[in-house]
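Box 3.1 A note on notation
Throughout this textbook, protein chains are presented in two layers. The first layer is the amino acid sequence; the second is a token string describing backbone geometry. Keep the layers aligned when reading.
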Amino acid sequence: MTASDVGSAVRPDDLEALNADGAVRVRNAISENWVEALRAGVERGLKEPGPLFGKLSGDDQPGGFYLDTWTRDRILEFDDFVHESNIAAMAASCLGEPHVRLMQDTWFVKRPGTVERTPWHHDNIVLGPFLSIWVALDAIPKECSLEFVRGSHTWNRYFMPAQYFEQEDGGDKALEKAETYYNAHNRIASIKEHGEQGRFELELIPDIEGTRDQYDILSWDMAPGDCLIFHALTLHGAPGNPNPTEARRFVTRWVGSSAVLAPHGGEVVASLRAMGFDMPIGPGDPIRGDMFPLLP
């Protein structure tokens, strides 16, 4: 497959909205042939799951919420997309750098009737320039689309949802584990690279869903090929999928040249190494290596 898209689809007013609000929708950013290729890749991923494949909804719940991560080494359509489409140019435009590194690729599927929410969270495994680009592979109405707390990327706060700890323990036990985890990682990180902004303190996430009227929440209707671009520290979450059609998304996450692995990233990297992933970095290290190609 050859590239059919040249340059970035991101306009100056998109950049202005991204920097002010923390998230922006870019219409018709990805061409139809790439959308079809990504759909084929997702279907292959469902049939041939990798070591990070997960089902986030319970077996007793309707629909189904599935995802897999770092799959482009096995799924040609994904690898072609990140190297040959305009997605890297879009990321570079948004981060204001000539080249960017691909941190991660992920796909998500919410089957019709899925009730499981994507909990409110942000992406703090990396410190420094870090953003995500979600490509809609299906028509997704606003009431089922990803939501953002406008301006939350400017709070200079780092959150971890308690749900992160509820896979094995629930209730008070989960909160105790969360507090222990936060205390272990609430230390100065990468001061050499980021100065005082490198101070890193994890907090429990606010109850955004229970107090929605207190926040300015953004969301959009999405058509296939539309993108959501957002800074990693923009708080985001998503409803289930009550619609009669699937909601499939392909996500790439990108870092700039000064990005480093966050303090709690060492545990994540160790787990990935145990699964056979090539992860030659540790906390405070710049994002480098074959797992993170420099593009475009």
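The helical segments are 12-21, 32-47, 76-84, 87-95, 171-185, 191-194, 265-274. The longest helix spans residues 32-47.
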